[in-house]
Specification:
6-stranded parallel β-sheet, alpha/beta, 2 domains, Rossmann fold, Ribosomal Protein S5, domain 2, 7 helices
């Protein structure tokens, strides 16, 4: 499932003026370091980018569209030139007094993300107001608040885009798969950024030992819990664990940005073993 960053515009990507309305080029000032670190997030990390912004009264006499779009289009083009592309731009045009469900913190504009194939639990809303934090709560997301006032509800509070990048980069890559067939009931969890802890119970002692080696030498946290038809044979248990383990790695790796296919040998005291693990997209144990 895809992870998403739902990013506010005014006060987050650009500095918000005192009158809270960017209706001329003279008012446009980009938020410090937003280009540099949002570009790194877009290029290095596994997030879809979506802009969600309230623009009070857009299209009315108080905020004509012909004063909004030229500046907005320049903002979008400037970020696109730095490698930052938003898959969707969601704009609410209402006034606060209207209290419409499409206005943040309402979820009217983002319901298709809440109903779609998205990992909202590990997605973030990034903005400079409490309405952004409340939107995250309403969506079941985490939140990052761009403010110098700490907020206990926000997952991270900062005024520095470099800290946002570092925080998101350190988010662990995890995968969890449950596989139930007539022969087996298997749950596999992996954390690729763990420290080599494992909890393995397949009912096959030597197989448990081999799985523990993947965890220990790969510095991966690995949990494997299996109920299999061992009274028949070991085949179903080993095969289905391999499938579930491959699918869990596939989840955790996402699009495999920054990962190359490689291998190495591990000589031991009395033997030399060669093991190949292929991250080419085929979820099988080899």
């Amino acid at each position: 499932m895809k992870k998403v960053l739902f990013i506010d515009r005014d006060g987050t990507l650009i500095i918000e003026p005192e009158d809270e309305q960017i209706d001329s080029f003279e008012k446009l000032e980009f938020y410090p370091h937003a280009f540099q670190y949002l570009a790194r997030i877009a290029n290095e990390l596994e997030y879809e980018l979506v802009m969600v912004t309230n623009q009070d009264g857009l299209g009315t006499s108080s905020f004509p569209e012909d004063t909004f779009w030229p500046v907005h289009n320049l903002i979008m083009k400037a970020f696109e030139n730095e490698g930052v592309r938003f898959s969707e731009v969601l704009i609410d045009r209402s006034f606060p007094r209207e209290n419409l469900p499409t206005r943040k913190p309402g979820t009217g504009l983002v319901t298709h993300y809440m109903k779609g194939n998205y990992d909202l639990e590990n997605s973030f809303v990034i903005g400079d107001r409490m309405t952004d934090v409340q939107l995250a709560r309403n969506m079941g997301c985490k939140s990052i608040l761009l403010s110098d006032q700490q907020d206990t509800e926000a997952t991270l509070t900062t005024t520095d885009w470099s800290k946002i990048y570092q925080f998101l980069k350190e988010e662990p890559r995890k995968g969890k798969v449950t596989r139930v067939t007539h022969e087996t009931n298997i749950t596999v969890e992996v954390n690729l950024d763990g420290n080599g802890k494992s909890h393995i119970s397949s009912g096959l002692g030597f197989f448990d030992h081999m799985l523990e080696q993947i965890s220990r030498h790969g510095n991966i946290d690995l949990t494997v819990q299996v109920k299999g038809d061992l009274h028949v044979d070991e085949h179903h248990t080993i095969e289905d664990v391999g499938i579930a383990l491959g699918e869990a790695f596939y989840q955790a790796l996402g699009s495999k940005k920054g990962v190359e296919r490689y291998g190495f040998l591990l000589p031991m005291d009395d033997c030399l073993a060669q093991v190949a693990i292929d991250f080419g997209g085929r979820p099988w144990l080899m």
